[in-house]
Structure formats: C-alpha cells, structure tokens
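dumping this here so i dont lose it again. seq + smiles for pyridoxal-5'-phosphate
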Amino acid sequence: MVKQEDFAVEQYMDKYEKYVKYNMGETCCYSLSIDEINELAGGDANDVSSLSQDLLSTRLTYGHITGSPELKNAITNLYQGTGLTSDGIVVTNGAIGANFLSFYGIVDKGDHVVVVDPTYQQLSSVPKMFGGNVDLFELKYEDQYQPDLAKLDKLVTPNTKLVVINNPNNPTGVVWGDDILSQIVDICSKNDTYLLCDEVYRPLYHSVDHSPSSILSFGYEKAISTSSISKAFSLAGLRLGWIATNDSHLVREFLSKRDYNTISISIIDDKLATYALNHYEKILEKNYKLCQENLEVIDKYINESKGLLEWIRPQGGSTCFIKVNKKDIDTYKLACDLAEKEGVLLVPGEVFNHRGYLRVGFGNSKEDLEVGFPILQKYLEQ
Ligand SMILES: Cc1ncc(COP(=O)(O)O)c(C=O)c1O
C-alpha cells in the first residue's frame, strides 16, 4: 500500500468545522447559492428560468469527458495574455484533484522536488507519496514571507524535477509580485525544472497596487497553474478545478492518468461553473469588498491586543497567519480549547508545522470575527 502522511489541516477542519458556532477558519470566500450567483450576474427572471430549465432538462450522462468547450473557454478567459488555449486545460475535481493529478503525472520515485513552506500540506505530502525526495523551501515571518531567491537558486539543480509554489499563499495571504515570479521562472528554466504554482486563491488580489500575473505569463513551457472555483469564486460545493499549462506533452500525460480516476466531472457542476465563470468579475468584486472589510476588523483586534498578536497583513487570498507572542504557547491546545469550549474555530499553526501561529480566514463572516477575536483575546490574557 502507498504510504501517506495524515493531512493535518483537513483532519483538523473536518473535526470541528460543522460543529462550531463561529468559524474563523474558513478559507473560501462566503459561498454562494445559485440564486445569489444569478443576482450578482444581474440575471432577470428569464435568465433564472432558462438556467433552471437547462439544469432540469439536462440528461445526466458523463457529459464531455474532458470538460465542455464552454467551460474550458470560460477557464481560458482567466488566463488572458498567457498564450493559453483551451487545449491546455485539464478539468479536475477541485484544485485538490488538479494538484494530485499534476504530481501523479510528474513525480517518479527518487525525483527531487522543492516545495514552499508553509503551504497547503498536500503540496509536499503527495510528492512524497509518489516517492519524491522533498526539500522544503522555507519562508520566514521576519522576511515578510518573501522568498530568499539566492537560497532557492542553490536548492534547485538540474536534478530537480519540480518546484512547487503557492501564490497567493495559504496560510499567510502573502502575494509574490511579477519580479519575484519571473526570477523563480528563471531558476527553473536554467535547470529545466517543472514549476507548479497552486493559484487556487488567484485572482483574489484585494490589497495590491498591481495584481501579479499567472505563472503561465512568463513564457516558460514547463510552468503549470492549478486552480478552482472554490476560493476566489465562492463555489467550493461544485468541486471543480483545473490544471492549466502550455506544455502539450504534459496535458496528454495528465489526461491519460485522469482516465483512471475521473472519467469526467459532474455535468451539473460543469454547467453551473460555466455560468458563474462567465460572470466572474461580479463575484470577485463582491469578494474583494468582503476581504477588505474583514481585514480592517482583524487589524483593529490585532492593534487592541497590545502586542499579543502580530501579523504580516495579507495582500491577497483569504487567509492570514497570526503570530501569538506568548512564550511557549501551545497554539494547538489553544485552538482545540476555543473550538470545544467556546465554539470558535481557528486553525492552529501546528497543522502547518508552525507552532505559535493561528490561521484565520477573512473571506467569510464578519460577525464570526467580531465574536471570535474577543474570545481569543480573553483566552490569551488568562
Ligand atoms: C492552497 C490550496 N490548494 C488547494 C486547495 C483545495 O481546494 P479545492 O479542492 O476546494 O479547489 C486548498 C484548499 O484549502 C488550498 O488552500
């Protein structure tokens, strides 16, 4: 049997998510109903009824095996200026499916893989599962989670098969700009290394002057973007993601592997996602506002904490990684206590192997933050 590490953050969320009253751990922007997508899209009664008629009368076959042309066009539209065509899209079951399929298609036993840290655990655990030798490329709070590119340059060699980054980053919410991304592309390009950027929080760039480009924008054929409609587009319940790349050989490899574990995604998800992505600017506009407002709320509580809490204020994504300035603090116990005794969900840094930090999601309910932070503050003052 293939050996795997437990997926700490997913197991933690699964344990508490559905039972707490105040969820400060959510990573998705506030999820939408179909009615709400319609409202945002400015849909009138005719649109609503034609969408529901279409859904009700759709024959529930496998649909287009690799995703409908309409869906692939809507996804391609998110990558304008990158040279991507719809032939470079592989539709998957969420970004989690996209990442898994990418590793399945690229990583062999003994391959050297460099993975940014901290990040979503899947990005290091799955390459290990396929026999990869994983080196973590550590980001530091003191550096504002910006990369030490000289260090990366040493870490990546012609023997490195794959470099994995995540922009905007979960858990820190830090965004790397085009200057950094292009230098990372250069490092990969001179070593002929694949470069996967998990862009599941793109284009949620609510607090930057210039939104960075997708990793596909730098003209590097071995670049891969994975993403989904879960986070920035508020539709995690559709379970729809994708791999995007200009490397046609890789696309063939992914599709061939995909035959064994996907066949097709749900035809209903395909239609709803296409509808939503055709109006994505409206969804994004709402979520930018939500994130900006909630960041102000968190900022206020951090200021009031008198130095107990500290952060690198996120520029993108929907999560931040708050540093708890209390000697020897067991943030895992803290988070479990708050979930079990107070009904407040925060994600402890320990599930990212970073004790002393708490991940807070700010794309969700403002009220939950306003109730949760005073409870956290009280706990810390005890
Ligand atoms: C960085 C990152 N990648 C991938 C995923 C998986 O997202 P989904 O499968 O819902 O698209 C998550 C979920 O939290 C994530 O944070």
